[in-house]
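hey so u asked for the seq, here:
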Amino acid sequence: MSLLSALIGPVSKIIDKIIPDQQARDQAKLELLKLEGSQELNQLQVQMSAILAEARSPDPWTSRARPSFLYVMYLLLLWSIPMGLIAAVRPEAARDIATGMNVYLAGIPEPLYALFGTGYLGYTVARQWGKIRGVEK
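ran it, structure tokens below
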């Protein structure tokens, strides 16, 4: 690890504190990354362009795959509302439903959870990258 690589994290935190404008802060961090090495920056840009290309695809499945993962997670979280109502009326039924869901979720392989996390992170990074470049709002 080079000296510059070791300084990137602390300098980035200092930039967050001293530059109030979000756009200027992002630009300063981008310049900092350029200093670290254009090879790493180029590799990141290639990865981001692939993610952005998928998001812009005219194929509805390809362009909506990552957000669909998010919708499934939102649905699971929103399910807590009717579960709370069920628990108020029939606590034993709510307990049985929760136990069944826990058994089901425990049966999902760990690599699938990792895939979801990677997709979520990729989608978030692609959106942020698009906003920084001014492509998305």
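The chain has seven helices and no strands. The mean pLDDT is 76.
lmk if thats what u needed
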